[in-house]
Prior knowledge:
- Helices cover 28% and strands 33% of the residues.
- The chain is of the alpha+beta class.
- The chain has a nine-stranded antiparallel sheet with strand order 14-13-10-11-12-15-23-21-20. Strands 25-26-27-28-29-30-31-32 form an eight-stranded antiparallel β-barrel, surrounded by four helices.
Amino acid sequence: MFKKILIANRGEIACRVIKSARRMGIATVAVYSDADAKAPHVLMADEAINIGPAAAAESYLVADKIIAAAKETGAEAVHPGYGFLSERASFVEALDKAGIAFIGPPAPAIAAMGDKIESKKLAKEAGVNVVPGYLGEIADTDEAVKIAGEIGYPVMMKASAGGGGKGMRLAYSEKDVREGFEATKREGLSSFGDDRVFIEKFIEEPRHIEIQVLGDKHGNIVYLGERECSIQRRHQKVIEEAPSPFVTPEMRKKMGEQAVALARAVDYHSAGTVELIVSGADTTGEGFYFLEMNTRLQVEHPVTEEITGIDLVEQMIRVAAGEKLPFKQEDIQYNGWAIEARVYAEDPYRGFLPSTGRLTTYRPPMEQREDGAVVRVDDGVTEGGEVSMFYDPMIAKLITHADDRLTATDLMVEALDAFEVEGLNDNVDFLSALMQHPRFRSGELTTKFIEEEYPEGFEGAPVDDAFKRDLVALAALVAMTEETRAALIDGQLGEPVFPSPHQVVILNGEQHEVTVVPEDDCTLIAVGDSDEPFDVVANYAPGDNLLVAEVDDRRRIVQVKRNGRGFKMVTRGRIHEARMVPRHVAKLMQHMPEKEEPDLSRFLMAPMPGLLTKLKVEAGDKVEAGQPLAVVEAMKMENILRAEKAATVKQIPAGEGESLAVDQVILEFE
């Protein structure tokens, strides 16, 4: 076994690898860029080596620097994590030449599966179901249009070397192909150094299901069940779970055996994932097709670990050291249900625009493993750390495991309620809303779930009347607690004047009369004309960010944040504005005029920080609704900004190549 390994990655996956290595008694070496000098993975490792500037192209993507760090520290092997150099065959070959082991598959397997066109040919030869499509190189847009028409719309255009949701465009018509083909080529070139594009049939009612495989160097290859990854946004996975609510045991066996056959065809060892597109309309168990094979550890590997009890990172290390897998296919068992939610630095209330900044507050829920319930947090950030523009915007992965799917889902909702992030925008509310959505809970998933269920964007999870009354009661408790404290402080030179028990809570603009009566072991709160007051038990003190309460034995977890004279209550996938005032003040507030929002329709503004790569109009041009106006690149993704209505361009304050801030004006219309 290795005595020391180097992790050629950063963030949560570097921390994840270090944890397994530490349990195995293996020393670890971290590498870091200038931007990551104080990152958690650097502090966790036994040694750390600086490998260059913040930009990944000058640090984490430079193989020579990784190899030099391994030689300098005496590391015997390198674990690549995922992303960066994890699927670069030339890196594996360079490590081999330097006498350093690669904790992953052999270089030929990476090369074969890294080319989506060649991998589909190999999959077909190995007897794996493949999606109908054109696997040859496509010369130009006209040829792409011809091929798409022959396959039949809709079609998917994909960069041959793509991955992670980048370099993909869905086309429903010739217009979509003509508009998206060149953009797909550019994304493939900028992200992967390869501008080849292939086209394949898009499967209706598609589900994204993948099979985890694991093999050793002695010919033993097993599959560890499937993961459902259908909840995606712009082809980027958001929620993953294992097993899938759609896959039957018979279907699992067929998928698994085909995945193993493909792995054998390329002499695979280590962990890998065969991704499949599955027709949700198929009832035969045969409607699954090969998409690609990821020759590395997947972001979502924890859900497989939770249902199988197998530490995938540990097994990768052992396989790289030449050990045999300690189990065969018949030994694999699946227990319970696991769900993973990816917590991203993005704003779901503004079209999921990426967010950067410092984590002024970062308090994930407490990890637990008791009574059959698991809450696990895989992260690589810490309070006070920064989410920068240089790397992936993922903050953490939250994983829950329970005996069944609904229990694991409810456990996830509660854990998300307690996930505190401040300083930048995050998608915790959206993740909670997904978990509560009736369609998700029923398991009726497709890769179109988010666009179908949130066609107008995300505005927060819906709230029923019963939960609203609980929130009103909790708002009254918070406000009364703080006003009582203020009365005690203000009354230091005389008798304190306590607030009246009869108040009005204004929740999201709606007024609710409340009566608050403190008792020895609880607080009785009557809302509106309720005959029976709520019995509220909570240990809340002014200034607490987290309120954990029992409202008539219903457990509620609410994040409380001061907001002027009121406060925000964040829970169950929504932000609620709350304030408590005396009843006479509430009556007068009804006559206050509302402030009008400024008219910004005359401007095209940057929806996110990014680089203005292209302007498609000039001053004086007349534009129509839907017409492309500009292209902004953010996180290596091209975003086309379009006209919302017909107008004439008055002036263009921004220029191509300019770095844009959020809401910076790009165009002004007459």
